[in-house]
């Protein structure tokens, strides 16, 4: 009997050991509160899954544990979802090796360096998280130090130098036996992928501007920045000479999709499949993404990568832009499900697309509320003072927004509660959109969708400039932006209940 019990315990122990070898454990701690969920990536088809995430809610003490099945070393990204804006302001990256436990912390009271590793491989992982790693994989931020350089050899040298310095950090750790060979190789692959994507994006920007804007008058400085030369073309080609690694190695990097996207654009432009101006025109017809999938990804990417690229393309456009009016994404989703009926990506895509379909149904079937009012002759209103003159002897709460502003639309989920507070204080609400005239239908559709009861204006160029002077004369106008005025048009403090909301 004792032998049987001992054998059973031994079997359970061995099973636990075997399963541990094929998974990683992340033990985390939230410092400072204000974080409601931790989103984390899980590789799909052995390919890094960029923006698509699963999530876990920390317990009341701020602790959480994530267990991820893992056969090979992989990048795992963790993103805290905040209770208040900004919804995302940081992320942490782990280069995870099966069989290990990682101890991490997010400090929500800090705007920078808020993520750090305290357990296994902490030195290497904290070093990696100091590298150029724009929030939410926004590679455009990485091009900024090089974008204004007009000499191809200079761009090449600067990027090579920066990449070598970063890889050298981990070469030293490897030589000292502090990281494994697999860890070091993964960092090398990642940095090669990242800087290849950055290089190609820099040259593509010059090519697109020089060809797309042939009739636009540039300043001398702009002409120099956008100059596309044979040397630039050679640099562009160089950035893709590692493409043989794409299917096996680069797909583990958080930057594989950006690299693939740049490769597709390079191929369709160089092979004259389409010009930048023609692609812009397709975008206006809601056909650009479809073209780049059907005539780009399927033509120029390895067959084993097309499903992942296709899914990530749909998701990224939903996640970043959240443009409910982009009906092309619904068509692409239906195409994706038809071509890949059993795809592991579908569960990530469906919630987004259902929102898009709900939007379509709402704006097509719902009438506009009589409490939604468009101010007469709003195209002729040139300054904020004239806007306020429509509200004699009343306090006015002004909400500035745009159809392309995702945080603005997130706030609209609280529109009913906002109306309740304003009504109790006898305060009118004025929504001012800073969209261009060509988005007028989108503007009115979103007002209907969110039932934004109150008064509405779409700002013309003069009103936009007036608002910018009030907010920040030296920079572009940012939204969402909220200000409040008394009965005489003087700016006053927003009530605490609204500020908290």
Enumerate the strands of the largest sheet in spatial order, edge to edge or round the barrel.
9-12-11-10-13-14
Q: Work out the helix count.
A: 19
Percentage of residues in DSSP E strands: 15-25%
Number of strands: 14
* Cα radius of gyration in angstroms: 26 Å
Instruction: Describe the largest sheet.
Output: 6 strands, mixed
- Share of helix, binned: 40-55%
Termini separation comes to 65 Å
pLDDT averaged over residues: 88
What can be said about this structure in brief?
The protein has helices at residues 2-21, 122-128, 140-147, 152-175, 181-212, 220-225, 230-238, 256-270, 276-284, 288-300, 306-321, 328-339, 346-365, 384-388, 406-411, 415-424, 440-449, 461-471, 496-500, and strands at 23-31, 35-40, 54-56, 63-69, 74-82, 92-96, 101-107, 115-117, 372-374, 395-401, 427-433, 454-458, 481-485, 491-492.
What's the layout of helices and strands?
Blueprint: H1 2-21, E1 23-31, E2 35-40, E3 54-56, E4 63-69, E5 74-82, E6 92-96, E7 101-107, E8 115-117, H2 122-128, H3 140-147, H4 152-175, H5 181-212, H6 220-225, H7 230-238, H8 256-270, H9 276-284, H10 288-300, H11 306-321, H12 328-339, H13 346-365, E9 372-374, H14 384-388, E10 395-401, H15 406-411, H16 415-424, E11 427-433, H17 440-449, E12 454-458, H18 461-471, E13 481-485, E14 491-492, H19 496-500
Parallel strand pairs: 1-7, 9-12, 10-11, 11-12
Antiparallel strand pairs: 1-4, 2-3, 2-5, 5-6, 7-8, 10-13, 13-14
Helix pairs in contact: 3-5, 4-5, 5-7, 5-8, 8-10, 10-11, 11-12, 11-13, 12-13
